[in-house]
Amino acid sequence: MENNKKALRLKYKTLRKELSESDSETMSLAIANQLLKLPIWDKNYFHVFLSIENHREIDTQLILHLLSGRDKNIIISKSDFATRKMTHYLLTDNTKIKKNPYGIPEPVDGPEASGEVPSQKIEVVFVPLLAFDKQGHRVGYGKGFYDKFLSECQPETIKIGLSFFEAETSIEDVHEADIQLNYCVTPHTIYEF
């Protein structure tokens, strides 16, 4: 079995599709509980991706509850598919969320989406991924949004991948521009890179 990004994308999209809804809920809860063990809770600005339901992504609602219970600033993004750039907004009680044409929940434009936050201010990023390896490299959906965004963050920003599945030994076609994770959290393991 090849361990390049294309093959891994296919493998993990298939594995995810095979998860039942209750499996993914149980695993999402286990991941949220694992996060409590990480040395990140002294930080204030946390970037969270909103889950794409039809991709069976990790349910980040649980992480949002953890963060709001600790009065953290929660940052969510809007993606521009023309420029492959993400714009980040503070999530407030007034933020309206709507799915974009790709099924990605995003903040709606307008006065509610005010409070734009520069990437440099974000201290912790929860990173979506399809697969990752034991060196902290990740395979995303291949659009490059997160590589671009993470490269704009401070070098000390903590990057945490979230995965239902355990690490691959290595990913063959890693690029120099690929930004490594600091941690990856699965329902059973915390990997530190």
UniProtKB/TrEMBL annotation:
<feature type="binding site">
    <location>
        <begin position="138"/>
        <end position="146"/>
    </location>
    <ligand>
        <name>ATP</name>
    </ligand>
</feature>
<keyword id="KW-0067">ATP-binding</keyword>
<keyword id="KW-0436">Ligase</keyword>
<protein>
    <recommendedName>
        <fullName>5-formyltetrahydrofolate cyclo-ligase</fullName>
        <ecNumber>6.3.3.2</ecNumber>
    </recommendedName>
</protein>
<dbReference type="GO" id="GO:0046872">
    <property type="term" value="F:metal ion binding"/>
</dbReference>
<keyword id="KW-0460">Magnesium</keyword>
<dbReference type="GO" id="GO:0005524">
    <property type="term" value="F:ATP binding"/>
</dbReference>
<dbReference type="InterPro" id="IPR037171">
    <property type="entry name" value="NagB/RpiA_transferase-like"/>
</dbReference>
<feature type="binding site">
    <location>
        <position position="57"/>
    </location>
    <ligand>
        <name>substrate</name>
    </ligand>
</feature>
<feature type="binding site">
    <location>
        <position position="52"/>
    </location>
    <ligand>
        <name>substrate</name>
    </ligand>
</feature>
<dbReference type="InterPro" id="IPR024185">
    <property type="entry name" value="FTHF_cligase-like_sf"/>
</dbReference>
<keyword id="KW-0547">Nucleotide-binding</keyword>
<dbReference type="Pfam" id="PF01812">
    <property type="entry name" value="5-FTHF_cyc-lig"/>
</dbReference>
<dbReference type="GO" id="GO:0009396">
    <property type="term" value="P:folic acid-containing compound biosynthetic process"/>
</dbReference>
<dbReference type="GO" id="GO:0035999">
    <property type="term" value="P:tetrahydrofolate interconversion"/>
</dbReference>
<dbReference type="InterPro" id="IPR002698">
    <property type="entry name" value="FTHF_cligase"/>
</dbReference>
<feature type="binding site">
    <location>
        <begin position="5"/>
        <end position="9"/>
    </location>
    <ligand>
        <name>ATP</name>
    </ligand>
</feature>
<keyword id="KW-0479">Metal-binding</keyword>
<comment type="similarity">
    <text>Belongs to the 5-formyltetrahydrofolate cyclo-ligase family.</text>
</comment>
<dbReference type="GO" id="GO:0030272">
    <property type="term" value="F:5-formyltetrahydrofolate cyclo-ligase activity"/>
</dbReference>
